[in-house]
Amino acid sequence: MSTFQENLEKYAELAVKVGVNIQPGQTLVVRTPLNAAEYVRAVARKAYEAGAKNVHVEWSDEELTKTKYELAPDEAFHEFPEWVAKGYEEMAENGAAFLSITGSNPDLLKDADPERVSNANKASGKAMEGFRSYIMSDKISWSIVAVPSAGWAKKVFPEDSEENAVEKLWEAIFSATRINQADPVSAWQEHLSLLDDKMNALNEKHYHALHYTSEGTDLVIELPETHLWVSGGSVNKDGVQFVANMPTEEVFTSAKKTGVNGTVSSTKPLNYGGTLINNFSLTFKDGKVIDFKAEEGYETLKRLLDTDEGARFIGEVALVPHKSPISDTNILFYNTLFDENASNHLAIGSAYAFCIEGGKDMNKEELEQNGLNTSLTHVDFMIGSADMNIDGVYEDGKREPIFRDGNWAF
Amino acid sequence: MSTFQENLEKYAELAVKVGVNIQPGQTLVVRTPLNAAEYVRAVARKAYEAGAKNVHVEWSDEELTKTKYELAPDEAFHEFPEWVAKGYEEMAENGAAFLSITGSNPDLLKDADPERVSNANKASGKAMEGFRSYIMSDKISWSIVAVPSAGWAKKVFPEDSEENAVEKLWEAIFSATRINQADPVSAWQEHLSLLDDKMNALNEKHYHALHYTSEGTDLVIELPETHLWVSGGSVNKDGVQFVANMPTEEVFTSAKKTGVNGTVSSTKPLNYGGTLINNFSLTFKDGKVIDFKAEEGYETLKRLLDTDEGARFIGEVALVPHKSPISDTNILFYNTLFDENASNHLAIGSAYAFCIEGGKDMNKEELEQNGLNTSLTHVDFMIGSADMNIDGVYEDGKREPIFRDGNWAF
Ligand SMILES: [Zn+2]
Ligand SMILES: [Zn+2]
Ligand SMILES: [Zn+2]
Ligand SMILES: [Zn+2]
């Protein structure tokens, strides 16, 4: 077996055992582009070996997506098959685990009509609302991992041949996910326990607000009264541990929906549904985006913010040190799974229900009453930098450093 | 554009314009293995250009199927996702057209437990019963075309390298489907009108029975009182023409369920769900298989005949001359789509409702009352040979030749 084959096997095993942590008799649902077929086959073998009853794969194809945006009539983008959405809900209800494989070309829909993209996102967001509630409340085990497409690899390494670019991107992924360590599974257990230490420390502090300052950013984010900091390691409703993002370097909670004020600037490009939004800033008043700018992708950002009422509020506040295995690669990945884990970030849109006490059992109205934002969308964007300072502010105004010069201050 | 690319485009156009004959605003559903991705992309472009609203692709992967048979627990083969079956029915109800791409490795499940294969076929047959009724009554437009997999190509051309075998199989497919003619679409129209001539002649004869004789075969098949001969060109409930099999060389009708007597021998191997059944014979009394033999695949044949009560009766009687563009290739395809169109054949299982007058509007009970067989399964098998004679027998016992020495006698 070649080194690459060995790494691919380890990476499949990591997704199955640590990512979704498949349990005997469980169904594994894999959502993947065609180009990840070789990896998906390895994942299926590992899943059956771990006792999975069935591996159900939902394939997609970048070329077909592009063709549809080029040639289909407008009405096609207002529809999403109801039966597919119902199918996802049925599988979630029956306790399946969900593995998503990311890695599409960040420029795939660069030339597509942004209105079509936005309509398609709205239609799928609405149809998949029921399924997404299983994810957003961690009722089920779910995980996201990445597999390079040629288009993505060439975006990250434009100077290289396609073959070399893909190879380099695989190496970067194996390094960021600790696959090239002797025992990736135990390396991950150690890593997750370090993240848990930060999470526990922040939960003990119980800050009233965070104050972010750096070039282009001066932002105060209040936290919900009953907020909980959460780390990369999650637990589903049956008590099974899983890791939703691989890699993950973040400790995160929810913003108080109406408690965000000031301006924040992006520090990395954001790949949203096949289009890049770059060098943008958002200005908030009482939680709501009241002004925004973007040097690239303004129209796409505007449509994202107009998805629904909740798309103008913040749903996630995530702390990630500037120094991390991913930052150390010094690669701009143009893929949120990686870029968000190399940078402090926020998310526009829906908050995770488990970020407040008892939130997993609350309905939408109760979540909103407790200060959480709800929306059809949830999009992370990167705001971290080497000069970023963050203060934790207590109820009485007392403050102390959380981040200094981009890294943990404690 | 290379010759191969040109042929692939023509083949895609043929499937879209003649096969399913897509109509403006219609959805095209494509069921395909991963290895046909390039062809599917061409089909999607042609479909959108012809006005399709959406192209929905359901992918499958031979490797994953094989892995499942090797590693999944027994109970996995008793299940078929209900929501998928419902989805197919919903798309059919909304008037979608269905294109299936065949071409899997005939030996794919050679080593799989036949009980697992039979359970899986039963589970999917049962779940998809509602959808299949749209197909069996031609309510919707549907078509089957073939794309070579490496495994299939190597089975047909075992002496060649994988690359050469695939290339040769493509050539054979392009030749059998008239793609290498200057204007395949009009070549098909001409061909279909010749088949219609045979159909019309047989419908005027209104035979009471057919009597087959050749080495290993002496079989009498009565036809239903109101039987209709049908050719490769079909018409859906909205009056849109389509061609269900490409290639097609057959003119066919239904047997009278209880009117089949004698013995028939297979003349080509039958690829059933990834296993080959070879050199087999069936003996009938009053329509029912009362004895059977098989040199290869006996267990698989037995399980096929045990699918349900209707799996022991004949549902289709198809006439195909021994001399045809497919026979002329002198290739044994190990794929029913091709082999059945180079040979007289019968089908075990369900009859097509449109093979009797008014059948499209009848329910299962009414079809049975009118002499048609119903079953969860429908499997064609080849019985034609160079020495086959077929007589048409009238109500009064008078008889006349339909086939002599394997070819049309009129
Ligand atoms: Zn995050
Ligand atoms: Zn997020
Ligand atoms: Zn037939
Ligand atoms: Zn048939």
Automatic annotation (TrEMBL), chains A, B:
Any GO molecular function: metallopeptidase activity
Secretion signal, residue range per the UniProt entry: none
Cofactor(s) needed: Zn(2+); Mg(2+); Co(2+)
Superkingdom: Bacteria
GO terms classed as biological process: proteolysis
One matching Pfam family: Peptidase_M29
Entry-linked InterPro entries: M29_Exopeptidase, M29_N-terminal, Peptidase_M29
Protein keywords: Aminopeptidase, Hydrolase, Metal-binding, Metalloprotease, Protease
Family per similarity comment: Belongs to the peptidase M29 family.
Protein name: Aminopeptidase
Organism: Halalkalibacter alkaliphilus
